[in-house]
Structure formats: C-alpha cells, structure tokens
Amino acid sequence: MTNLKPSSKALVPFVSVDHMMKLVHHVGIEEMLRGIADYIETDFKRWELFDKTPRVASHSESGVIELMPTSDGDIYGFKYVNGHPSNTADGLQTVTAFGLLADVASGYPVLLSEMTLLTALRTAATSALVARVLAPKNAKVMAMIGNGTQSEFQSLAMKTIVGIEEVRLYDIDPAATAKCAANLAGLGLRVTSCESAQEAMEGAQIITTCTADKQYATILTDNMVGAGVHINAIGGDCPGKTELAPAILHRAEIFVEYPEQTRIEGEIQQMDADHPVTEFWEVLTGAAKGRTDDKQITLFDSVGFAIEDFSALRYVRDRIADTGLFHPLDLLADPDDPRDLFGMVQRAKP
Amino acid sequence: MTNLKPSSKALVPFVSVDHMMKLVHHVGIEEMLRGIADYIETDFKRWELFDKTPRVASHSESGVIELMPTSDGDIYGFKYVNGHPSNTADGLQTVTAFGLLADVASGYPVLLSEMTLLTALRTAATSALVARVLAPKNAKVMAMIGNGTQSEFQSLAMKTIVGIEEVRLYDIDPAATAKCAANLAGLGLRVTSCESAQEAMEGAQIITTCTADKQYATILTDNMVGAGVHINAIGGDCPGKTELAPAILHRAEIFVEYPEQTRIEGEIQQMDADHPVTEFWEVLTGAAKGRTDDKQITLFDSVGFAIEDFSALRYVRDRIADTGLFHPLDLLADPDDPRDLFGMVQRAKP
To answer: Is the Cβ pair B149, A344 closer than 8 Å?
Structure first.
C-alpha cells in the first residue's frame, strides 16, 4: 500500500518566532548569547575553510533585500534579510529575516528558522565577542547610542560576555531611551539615561553606535572620542549609511569581519580602498594583533556576515534537538521512487 | 492588554508539498501548466525591467546548492534549489527546491512555497512555451529521451500547449521508461516505448533530452539529428554537464534564456564565448526572429532561469487566494512597537 504521508526526509524542522522566544526563555537569554558567541568564535577560528561571498543584494528606493550564503563544506547556510529604514513609520520592522541550513552532501534542507530575533541575538553576541578581545581591560561602562531594537540585546551581551556593569543610553528620540531603560530594569545592569551622546560617553570604555538612518550621519564627531576606548559601530551597514566622522577612523585601529563586504557597506566606505584593516578572525587565531596599547582606539566596523548567521543557526539546530521547539514542515517532495514525482502527484488525487 | 498572538503581518502563507499536490488536482495539471506558461510568457515579455543575476552557486563534490533571486521592482522572488545527481542512489530526489516572494516596498515575505513539484511544472511549461513558438508547424510527435522526473511533465505540457499527440520514450534504464509509460497511460497521448534514442526520434518534430548524469555526455550525436526539428535540451544545466554533440550546436539556431548563465551551464559551454545565440524573450516581443525555415534545427538550450520561478510563484500566489491551500506560518517577528523586539520576547516569558 502506498503511504501518502510525507516521509521523514520530506520534513524540515521549522523554528517559528514563537518557538524562538520559547527557546530564549528555556535557555535563558544571557546563556543563549554566550552560547551563540561560542559558536561564532568556533567558526571564526576556522574562517579559512568557509565558502565566503559578499551578500547578494537587491536594492530598491525603499530598502534592500539580501541573501547571505556560506558553507563550511559539510553544512550550507543562508539568511534572507531585508533592511527598510522607513518601515518603522508603517508599524513594521526595519529588519526581518529567516534562515536555513542544508546538508552539503545531499542538498536537503535540515533547518528552517525565523531569524529576526536570532539576528538580534547573533549581532549582539558578535559585538560582545569582539569587545571581549579588543576593549580596554576591565571595561565596566558602555555608552549605547541609538536605543532601538538592538540596544537591549547589545547591553545584555556586553554584560554577560565582557562584564559591563553600567550602560549609558542616548537616542535622539527620548521615547526609545525610555523603552530601553524600562526593558533593562531588573536585569543586573546600572542603567543611566542621558540627554546627549556626549553625556552617554562619560566614563565609557566601550561605545556602541546603532542608529538607523540611511544617510551619511555623524553620530560621533572626532572631538567626542578620547583615547583608550573600543568603538562598536553597528549602524553603518550599507552603502551610504555611516555613523562616524572620518577623522575617528584615521585615529583608530580598525577591525572588520570580511573586508570585501565591509569596504562597500561599513564605516570604511568613507576611506580609501586600501586603508589598513585587520580581519577579526585573525586576532582570534593569533595571526594578527588585537589591542596593543591601553591608549588605542579600537574600532569594530561591524556590518554582519553570513558566517555569524551560520553559527547562530548551528546553535539553534543543536538546541532544538532536546527541547522539541520546532514543527516538522512539509517542504520537500519525497516520492518513494525518487524518479517518480509525477506518480506521487497522481496517487495524491482526491 | 498585550496580544501575544502573531499579527497578520507576522504570518507568511506557506504552500506545502501536500498543498501543491492539492492545487494541481484542484486546477487540473494541464490547466495549471497552461496557466504557468501564460505567467512566464507575460514576464518574458517584460524581461528588461527585471533585476537579473546569474544564480549564486555553492559547489561541492556531491553537487550544487543554488540561490536564484530576481525582482520586477514590485515583487522580489528567489528559489533555493539543489542538484545532486547521486542522490537517487540514496532514495533522495536529485533536485529539491523551495521559493519565496516578498514585497519590495517593505521587504516582508508574502509567500513561501515548496518548489520541487513547482519547478517540475515550470520547467515543462517553459519548454512547451518555447516549443509552441519555435517548433515546426503542426508538430505532433515528441521524442522524450531520459524518462526521469521531468518526463511526464514535459510530455503533458507539450500535449496541452503545443498539440503533441505522440511521445516516444527512451531511457538507458528500461524501468524508467516503464514508469513514464505507466504514468502517462490514459492521459490522452499515444505513448511508444523505444529501445534506442534513434528509434525514439523516428518521425519526431520535437526532441527533448533530459538526462541526469553530471559529465560531458553525448545523448545525441550529429548523425542522429535530421533537418526540420526542434531540440528541447533540458539536461545540460550545470558546468561539465552537457548532452549534445558540438556538431549539432553548429548546425542549429540556438535560443537561450539568459546568455550570461547559459554560457556557463548550458550546452553552449562547449562553444566559443561569442557563439551567436538568441534570447528567447526577444522572439516573444518581436525584437528577434524565431524559426525562419521549415528545414532549420532550432535548439532551446534550457538551463532554467530565476524569472521562470518568479512567474510560477506569482501563479501560485494568485491561485491560493481563492482555494485556501496554504498554512499561515509564524515566520516574522512583529512586535506592537517595531523598535521593541526585546520587549516582545520579555512579554512572551512563560
């Protein structure tokens, strides 16, 4: 008798937004940020074996839709992500995402997952992993400039991975600061709401900028940034979108994920194409130096790279196995005889 | 009170394999092939306004995983598809696929769909659309060489769109021919099983080749192909994979989808990089000539292009609206305040 139900090969585990939120609460958000950072560190240390390509972007007047693929030779992954700064005005997210892992040997997908939330987690985990390595020793205070979607995730990741004890919030919209402060209340950080970026940076060893306008903005001017800090620049992440005055870039040691992509999308799009930068993975493997001096300004010019998504998806895949936080999705046609797709359709006739 | 259920913006219609099979039976397979061909024809006629890019391929020893994006400025679409010739030996499909449509203005996905079955339908619909334009007038007989997954879809599409009355089947594996013949029984075609490719081609005005080996194969040699035929070459679709002897290519008028991709993946990878080809969409708009002579050999060197998937997904989106053949999938995080993703997670705490 023909079995008309999809076989196990046809079913792909799907992690919905609801599942991802349950996973966050099941694991604990700080533990999950640490776990994702560990997976990213593991993958950055084997950077050279990955298939790397700049993201494939489709630009329009209102924003961009991107596909970010990579592979370590055993597993293939990609993320779909959009960036539409004006979405907020319509009550929509500026960034939504989902992602997939597949088995390289067979090409069959093995995980489909929401990644709007997971991207927020992996971005914060990456920032904190980098800051743990590059920030001045015993950094305890972070300025958080831009208090939108990323701000709470950044703050908690810096707390749990770097040991930050105080975040100093600033946003041009006080309502955003109030939202961030309220969300962080009771989570173990001293939270100070500030009236200006300058005030937020008082006493901060780490300065995180994460603002959303798609234009050449200058969130930090040269005179605002003193010696001996680590700048974690998140918001300059597509062509035409930057946050730092070029003079700061000239004073800083610049660390990037994947130069081919960062030179197009990051803060360094303002610099000459051969301006020296260090690939962060080389700091992790010891092939390049990180911070060499307490007085240095280190800058992580972060635009987000496919390997970070790959690591985050690997983490989710490993964690859902024991929690059951997924649905089996009937995504793949899987006839009994692989050459008999037509017969499968015929046998499904009502 | 906070509503913890996903909003309608967060839910993406998902068409499973089961839904797609139900849609095929609801619409009728021939009607669906004609409908998809109409959508492809519409999109080919507005070819120039599409964002076009060769597919993004990740090759491995066992196969390839590809992303095929495109956009018409209003809608963005992409397909994930693998090609793993040795999968059949493991009881898996050589090709599986799924695809997505998104709203360009917001970047939000609007449809996620299985595409293993849909790819089979759109490939056959494309072949038949092209053959309707290029094949000799009153073509009634098709040779179907390679009797795998595509063979029945190709046969039915050629019947309903071109008016083919007889298919002559040949495969190096007689079991594949027997499967194809059994599946086509009673569907309105005269089906003749043959012992050789030569025999299958007797009296055929259309010759479809669709074999799966990833190697330079010669399914058709020069002396096998007479004048006044249309060759529909499907199986030569990735680097190193071809089916036709170069001498045939020299005698034929060659029509392609997107030359930038076909020169890498199609039969013409065997030819000089400037070997003349005609883009098929130009024949539809009248910008280029199709068949000009009954004695000509026309060749459609088909590798599959993103716009065909885009058209097929558009067709599915339009047809599921009134049939309800989809699940709403909780794919996108959609907090009440778009900047408050963290708060949404906190409020979901059990």
So the answer is: no
CB A338 within 8 A of CB B173: no
pLDDT digits (tens, 9 = 90+) for B96-150: 999 999 999 999 999 999 999 999 999 999 999 999 999 999 999 999 999 999 9
Residue B40 contacts residue B169 (beta carbons within 8 Å):
no
- A264 vs B159: CA distance, rounded Å: 51
Q: What share of chain B is helix, strand, coil (3-state, %, to 5)?
A: 40, 25, 35
CB burial of residue A56 (10 Å; 0-12, 13-18, 19+): middle
Q: Torsion over CA of A21, A26, A31 and A34, rounded to 10 degrees? A: -50
What is the spatial distance between Cα B67 and Cα B97, in angstroms, rounded to a whole number? 10
User: CB–CB of A58 and B69 under 8 A?
Assistant: yes
Alpha-carbon span A80 to B111, nearest angstrom: 13
- Half-sphere exposure of residue B5, counting CA atoms within 13 Å on the CB side? 3
For residue B15, list its beta bridge partners.
B113
Smallest CA–CA distance, residue B302 to chain A, in Å, is 20
Please tell me which of the candidates B80, B183, B349 has its beta carbon nearest to residue A346: B183
Q: Which of A171, A237, A301, A309 is catalytic?
A: A237
> A17: which chain B residues are within 8 Å (Cβ-Cβ)?
6, 10, 330-334
At residue B55 the predicted structure's pLDDT band, cuts being 50, 70 and 90, is: confident
Known catalytic residue: A237?
A: yes
CA B32 to chain centre: 14
Query: Rounded to 5 degrees, what are φ and ψ at B71?
Result: -155, 145
Q: Which of B6, B335, B347, B105 is nearest to A148 (CA)?
A: B335
What's the whole-number average pLDDT of chain B?
A: 93
- Taking CB atoms and an 8 Å limit, are B338 and A91 in contact across chains? yes
Strands B229-233 and B206-209: parallel
Number of CB atoms found within 10 A of residue B179's CB:
22
Beta-carbon separation of B67 and A63 below 8 A: no
Is the distance from CB of A164 to CB of A141 less than 8 angstroms? yes
Half-sphere exposure of A294 (CA within 13 A, CB side): 3
Residues 6+ apart with CB under 8 A from A219: A145, A146, A197, A209, A211, A235, A243, A244
How far off is chain B from A138, nearest CA to CA, in Å?
Answer: 27
A221 contacts A245 by C-beta, under 8 angstroms: yes
Closest by Cα among B76, B314, B44, B100 to A60: B76
Residue type, B119: T
Give the integer Cα–Cα distance in Å for B101 and B107: 10
Inform me whether the pLDDT recorded for A295 exceeds 50: yes
> Is pLDDT at A9 greater than 80 in this prediction?
no
- Alpha carbons B94 and B65: distance in angstroms, whole number: 11
**How far apart are the C-alpha atoms of B38 and B42, rounded to whole Å?**
6
Instruction: Taking each helix axis as running N to C, give the angle between helix A174-184 and helix A149-157, from 0 to 180 degrees, rounded to the nearest 10.
Output: 40
- Mind listing the domains of chain A with CATH numbers? 8-117+307-347 (3.30.1780.10), 124-304 (3.40.50.720)
State both tokens at A178.
Answer: 């109030």
Can you tell me the distance from the alpha carbon of A40 to that of A124, in angstroms, rounded to the nearest whole number?
Answer: 11
